[in-house]
Amino acid sequence: MKTSPYQPDQTNLAYSVGVTLDRFIKLKQSDFPFASGELSQLLRDIALAAKIVNRETNRAGLSNIGGAFGQTNVQGEEQQKLDVIANIRFMRALSKGGEVCAIVSEEEDEVIDLQNNSGKYVVAIDPLDGSSNIDVNISIGTIFSIYRRKTPVGSPVTTEDVMQPGNQQVAAGYVLYGSSTMLVYTTGCGTNGFTYEASLGEFFLSHPSIQAPKDGLIYSINEGLEYEWQTGIKNYVRACKERKFQSRYIGSLVADFHRNLLKGGIYLYPSTLKNPNGKLRLLYEANALAFLIEQAGGKASDGGGRILDIQPESLHQRTPLFIGSSAMVEEAEQFINIPESQITGISH
């Protein structure tokens, strides 16, 4: 039957909203022959907690949950009220799902043994990275790592289950609470990003198969600490300036990392006089982002080697971090490893 010329064209009236996170996870379940749905459910639990934290973050200015809580965490850092709220939300989501046997959190002194010996997974998490930026409405985030336990299911959790190098992660990701809320994660089969649609209450695939540019023109470092850097770092940053690279530093790790992941660049947090072992935490910050950037074609280093190959020795172990576009990280490593005797008079 011939369509009437007066009948309106309906093809563009309802645009496709895309693939939801839940459907994407189900489609990718076949990538994990060792799993029987628990990892997929665990990712959904994290997404649910992220939605709740997103809601709390968006109403922070109206509900008196911004500002300091009045206590310090194990890192010696002043806790913000939203640090505490986010920690509670993620602890509840991870403990009620049944897939997790233990949790390592930036906000907790010790390993949280959930007494769930049937759980197959260990989660390391920074519930709210950059929370001091809440009061000035700057992007913040959540960072998480997921490991399969080493000991047999049914047995008590041990140190062996928790103290695993980053190359043993089965999944990792972050949530960015910014102008839009995004969840970016990997299960070792590429890095994918999902944007939250608040009116539908769903994350939708918006950045499939993210590939970080091999090189970039952005460097991100706290230049206020320059007097504490080693000479190689000073020379690298000077070389960036001479080539007119852009300095972009938000002071919120997830936000800085996310920008450089998409646009190309390097994030540097080197050792300093105050923090000779670096400041960022290996288990629940560096490892997760290193896994993500490698799956997107980038690189993550402590200045001497691959972040993911570091064997953790303590729960809140710190590390220097150089992460982003592979060419920029490799060049930074070269500057760092120039012997002191060869540095005098170096030209760029």
Automatic annotation (TrEMBL):
It comes from the Bacteria. SUPFAM superfamilies: Carbohydrate phosphatase. The keyword Cytoplasm applies. Signal peptide: none annotated. Its EC number is 3.1.3.11. It is an enzyme of class 3 (hydrolase). Its cofactor is Mg(2+). It is found in: Cytoplasm. Binds 2 magnesium ions per subunit. It holds the Pfam family FBPase_C. Mg(2+) 2 binds at D126, D129, E285. Pathway: Carbohydrate biosynthesis. InterPro entries: FBPase_C_dom, FBPase_class-1, FBPase_N, FBPtase. Keywords: Carbohydrate metabolism, Cytoplasm, Hydrolase, Magnesium, Metal-binding. Residues 20-208 form the Fructose-1-6-bisphosphatase class I N-terminal domain. The keyword Iron does not apply. Substrate binds at D129, G130, S131, S132, N222, Y249, Y267, L268, Y269, K279. One of its GO terms (molecular function) is fructose 1,6-bisphosphate 1-phosphatase activity. It catalyses: beta-D-fructose 1,6-bisphosphate + H2O = beta-D-fructose 6-phosphate + phosphate. Residues 213-336 form the Fructose-1-6-bisphosphatase class 1 C-terminal domain. Its main location: cytoplasm. Mg(2+) 1 binds at E106, D126, L128. PANTHER family: FRUCTOSE-1,6-BISPHOSPHATASE-RELATED, SEDOHEPTULOSE-1,7-BISPHOSPHATASE, CHLOROPLASTIC. Belongs to the FBPase class 1 family. Homotetramer. This is Fructose-1,6-bisphosphatase class 1. It comes from Algoriphagus aestuariicola. The lineage of its organism: Bacteria, Pseudomonadati, Bacteroidota, Cytophagia, Cytophagales. The gene is fbp.
